Amino acid sequence: MGTTSQRKGECAPGKDSDNPLLGKFDKPLPCFGCGIGWFSFLLGFVCPLMWYYATILYFGNYYHKDPRERAGLAASAIAALLFTIAVVITVFVILL
Q: Is residue 5 helix, strand or coil?
């Protein structure tokens, strides 16, 4: 067997084109370090359209660029769904 610097089961670190010493996910996330998903989730309580923006990013597979974004985008998609259901129920109750 060939000699390698890795032991069985260990993964090779990712490469970064700007700085080869950094791994793929060593760069901080955008939006103050919390990522677009969580930033949209928090801002969605002030402006619910941000939840729909993050939902579009989630279903557009934006998280393939950085998997750390997936949880925040999914949380925003769930918040958008709950907000939509609440608005539909409210409109239904008011009109009937």
A: coil
